[in-house]
Amino acid sequence: MKTIHNARYQVLLDLWLEARNAAGMTQKELAVRLGRPHSFVSKTENAERRLDAIEFMDICQGLGANPYALLSKLESMTRP
């Protein structure tokens, strides 16, 4: 199974979306802040492309979110 279809990966994307909304940013605003095309944010949020660790860190920085807190929340939400 590809990781983009993994339930834990979807939770990670949901946490990212929650952080983006909490920051009051649109996909387009985040893309500009990251220096990436809007399609990068859109396709990643829609699980059309896979997010790597470095991109995750960059996105968290762009959102002003703590990547470690998001990962900790992911772990607590998906722990068996």
Give, in order, the helices and strands.
Answer: HHHHH
For CATH, the homologous superfamily is named as: lambda repressor-like DNA-binding domains
Structural class label? mainly alpha
Question: How large is the radius of gyration?
Answer: 12 Å
| Number of domain units | 1
Content of β-strand: under 5%
CATH class placement: Mainly Alpha
Which stretches of 5+ consecutive residues score pLDDT under 50? none
Helical stretch tally: 5
Question: Using DSSP, what is the number of strands?
Answer: 0
Q: Write down the overall geometry.
A: globular
Question: In which range does the helix fraction lie?
Answer: 55-70%
Give the CA-CA distance, first to last residue. Answer: 19 Å
Please name the CATH architecture: Orthogonal Bundle
Largest beta sheet, briefly?
none
Mean of pLDDT: 93
- CATH topology label: 434 Repressor (Amino-terminal Domain)
Describe the structure.
- The structure is a single chain.
- The chain is 69% helix and 0% strand.
- With 80 residues, the chain is an all-alpha fold.
- It has a single domain, classed as Orthogonal Bundle (434 Repressor (Amino-terminal Domain)).
- The radius of gyration is 12 Å and the shape is globular.
